[in-house]
Amino acid sequence: MPKIPVISVEQMRQWEQATWAAGKTEQEVIQQVGRLLAHRILQLTQPGDAIWILAGKGHNGDDARAAQPHLAERNVLLTNIEDPRQGLAEFSQRLHTQGLRRVRWIVDALFGIGLDRALNEDWRKLIDAINGCGIPILAVDVPSGLNADTGQSEGAAIKAGLTLTLGAPKRGLLEAPALTGRLEVVPEIGLVPCPITAELNWTMPGDFAGLPPRRASMGNKGDYGHVAIVAGSLGYHGAAVLAAHGAQRAQPGLVTVFPQASVYVPVAAQLQSAMVQPWRAGTPLPKNCSSILFGPGLAAEELSDTLKEDLRSLWQKSPLAMVVDASAMDWLEPGPAPEGAVRVITPHPGEAGRLLRTSASEVQAGRVAALRGLSKRFGTCWVVLKGQQTLVGRAAGEIFVNSSGNPHLAQGGSGDLLGGYLAGLLAQPNWRQDPLLAARHAVWQHGATADHLAETQVNWTVEDLAQKLGTIRP
Q1: Does the pLDDT of residue 97 top 80, yes or no?
Q2: 215 in a structural domain
Q3: CATH number for the domain including 191?
Q4: Virtual CA dihedral for 66, 71, 72, 74, nearest 10 degrees?
Q5: Secondary structure class of 393 (helix, strand, coil)
Q6: CA angle 372, 378, 380 (to 5 degrees)
Q7: Residue 309 belongs to a domain with what CATH number?
Q8: Does residue 1 register a pLDDT over 80?
Q9: Cβ(183)–Cβ(165) under 8 Å?
Q10: Cβ pair 247, 221 in contact under 8 A
Q11: Cβ(105)–Cβ(121) under 8 Å?
Q12: What pLDDT sits at residue 293?
């Protein structure tokens, strides 16, 4: 599947002009967008639900109006707004007379990516009223009022629960997650193949078509690697168990967990197919070990300096693939790693801030720069910078933006599962030869599993995530 770059407004315009030059018309693209928008609305709603379309006078409004004929089983309310003062009066009256009953989504199509000026007071009042009505908002291409290049509000901006952006993500959408909400890309809108390449690329499920790699009929467990997990300390033994479950879902040949001796019994009692041995100073790794996960649940005060020295020695000398997570990242020392050895760190913004001697808020304000800086600091390692739209990349080259996941992943143990799953993939030769693909797939699968759970049950737990991890097909 072709890569989907994160682009500027000017690049989007260049792409459109290349399409018109090839003989496609704007009307053809608008009709295609209308069909695709209607398809997503149908997925989000039930027959009889009301959909309220707020359409401006430009092509963004045309896109939403083109969806209406394809929504016959929904109660579609269309409000065309050219004058904001009149639009506010009509919006308020309809809201008052019809109320919120059975209105499942407002479709925001007031302004598109062409907005580059401050909105006047009347537009600001209208947008504030829409934001305050309590109905979930689906934004078409970009939340109205958001500058699609900078991510800044032009005086006021729609706060969308879901943004369906067209063709490719625009840079500003990644800078304004509080306004964009969940960002989904509708790539096949009738334009010619995208002529743009970019530093940032958006992840689509189709990127993982055909994965995991097919196994040979004569394969045995020795062919699929052995992952060693150094995890779990007093008060944090569950992290080791969850990391082991994550690794098992990746299906390496063998899994061995090395918890601190103080929690050997509770860890061993909760695992069956994974082997468990207490970690002591100088504990040798299994001879056939092919990847290492170091860090989940290593947060107790009892931890010895020897454990930290063991981590640093492995990072600096071992030829094995290695994932370092959680508190153990603080023990790493800047410097090179062995040439050709796979190294991955998986910080959330707070951990990234500590490693860079800055704050989580500064990391969030410059996530790409933070990822590049972390990779350079620790031997050009691969970095999985977690959070909404997790980034995967390293000091140079392309960075990929993850598209899956939801706020329910903000539960203790979620990251332990991801670390285990990634280490379990990297234990296997077919995955280890492309660590970027392995890391991207692990992150996407983790988020896509959470999305599946969110659609099927309200109060899912990390244990539920462990049961389903790896089952989502692109």
Answers
A1: no
A2: no
A3: 3.40.50.10260
A4: -140
A5: strand
A6: 55
A7: 3.40.1190.20
A8: no
A9: yes
A10: no
A11: no
A12: 98
Tally of domains within the chain: 2
CB atoms within 10 A of CB 100: 12
Do 162 and 280 belong to one domain?
no
Q: Do 66 and 157 fall within a single domain?
A: yes
Helices (H), 170-321: 171-175, 177-180, 237-250, 264-269, 305-317
Residue type, 109: A
Per residue in 105-164, pLDDT (tens digit) is: 999 999 999 998 999 999 999 999 999 999 999 999 999 999 999 999 999 999 999 999
* Cβ atoms of 226 and 284 closer than 8 Å: no
Looking at every residue in the chain, the average pLDDT score rounds to 96
Cβ-Cβ contacts under 8 Å for 200 (sequence gap 6 or more): 5, 6, 171, 174, 368, 398, 399, 400, 401
Does one domain contain both 72 and 175?
A: yes
Which residue type does 79 have?
Answer: T
Please tell me whether residues 281 and 172 are part of one structural domain: no
Question: How many alpha carbons fall within 13 Å on the CB side of residue 302?
Answer: 14
Q: Is 35 helix (H, G, I), strand (E, B) or coil?
A: helix
Q: Which residue range(s) make up the domain with 49?
A: 4-196
Q: Which amino acid is at 212?
A: P
What global pTM score does this model have? 0.95
Q: Choose the weakest-confidence range: 41-45, 97-101, 446-450, 469-473.
A: 97-101
Q: To the nearest whole percent, how much of the chain has pLDDT over 90?
A: 93
Neighbours of 334 (CB within 10 A): 9
Query: How confident is the model over 184-213, as pLDDT tens digits?
Result: 999 999 999 999 999 999 999 999 999 998
